Amino acid sequence: MANPPPFRNPSSRAGMGDPRSSTFITRLSDEMLGSKRNKPLSSETVNLRVEDLDPGSGIHRKPQDEPLGLAPNPPAVASRMIAVFTPKGGCGGTVLAVNLGGILGRLGKPAVIVDLDLQLGAVPISLNMRPQRSLAELCREVDLSNQGPIQSGLDRHASGVCILAQGDRIEEVGEVTAERLPRLFDALGQTFPYVIVDGLRDFSDHAVTAMDLAHLILMVVTQDVPSVRAASRSLRLFRRLGYGPDRLRLVLNRFHRKAPVTVAAIENALGQTVEAVLHNDFPLVERALNEGLLIPDLKPSSRLSRDLEAITYHYCGLREAPPRAGLLTRLLGRG
């Protein structure tokens, strides 16, 4: 019997059938114990199995075993579009997005952060801003300008980065359709060399449309079991949509060397390398969010600030070296 098609509606890349995946995962630390375990597994201590069950086959499959679909190539334009995806709430994707865009602004690189969480977007809140423009308003403007660059100003943070969010104008949400997004992002790309997209936490039509246009997708995970579980399921869906490791990169947030969920365990479970880490510094992040400031502006000498700078230079394709040496160490170092 032929396998069913992966999408319910061929015209909608987000119209997936329910994967009905089963994830069995408890403590990632057990995966690293292996033969050193002193006692048999119990119901409370179960070996890590981050493998979604293929419906009907009885075969456990890891994310990398999922057949890779076909995704459209991002448009060949001069601008660079980076989408930040979080498989579950609380992973810190917005913190990465606003600092990525803010550091670009500080470097004199025109950038815009687009918040695609149309109802509860966190970008304006994180930067202590109340946007005067809305996504719906810009969609209308782009329709009238015949796909030219943005002609009017956007809300701008003190760092120099612009933001585009729906804000409190919830009555306009219906005007921000997935069909309008390609024209909007094309206009933004003609205006800004860097476009950062935040608010992607699912595979809705809006999210998939944005990710199809993005040159790079950064999936942010943390060192806890629910995050890895959600990342495993998301990776399977990403592969079905055609996003492989060349376009989708893993960024580990709140990294701590002594955390029970190790980087090696996460990489083994997900079958993909953690390419960059952001060291844990909760007090600094909390203060930055409370004051609506960039983390490097508050404490430029902190390890987290250096991590954010290194990620910005690396993923934004900047040729200049960061102000402080050790890019590779900051990007991949876990000391």
Overview in brief:
This protein has 335 residues and is of the alpha/beta class. 33% of the residues lie in helices and 14% in strands.
Could you please describe the fold and organization of this structure?
Helix 2 (93-106) crosses helix 11 (303-315) and helix 4 (135-144) crosses helix 5 (181-191). This protein has 335 residues and is α/β, with parallel strands linked by helices. It starts with 28 loop residues before the first helix and ends with a helix. An eight-stranded mixed β-sheet has the order 5-6-4-7-3-8-9-10, sandwiched between helices. Strands 1-2 form a two-stranded antiparallel sheet. It is built from twelve helices and ten strands. It has helices at residues 29-33, 93-106, 123-126, 135-144, 181-191, 205-213, 225-241, 263-270, 282-291, 295-298, 303-315, 327-332, and strands spanning 52-53, 60-61, 80-85, 111-115, 155-156, 162-164, 194-200, 216-222, 248-255, 274-279.
The main β sheet shows up as: 8 strands, mixed
Which segments are poorly predicted (pLDDT under 50) over 5 or more consecutive residues?
A: 1-13, 15-59
Radius of gyration: 20 Å
- Tell me, rounded to a whole number, the average pLDDT: 80
Q: What's the N-to-C terminus distance? A: 52 Å
Fraction of residues in β-strands: 5-15%
The number of helical elements comes to 12
Overall strand count = 10
Shape: globular
User: In sequence order, what are the helices and strands, one letter per element?
Assistant: HEEEHEHHEEHEHEHEHEHHHH
What would you call the structural class? alpha/beta
Order of strands side by side in the largest beta sheet? 5-6-4-7-3-8-9-10
> What helical percentage do the residues reach?
25-40%
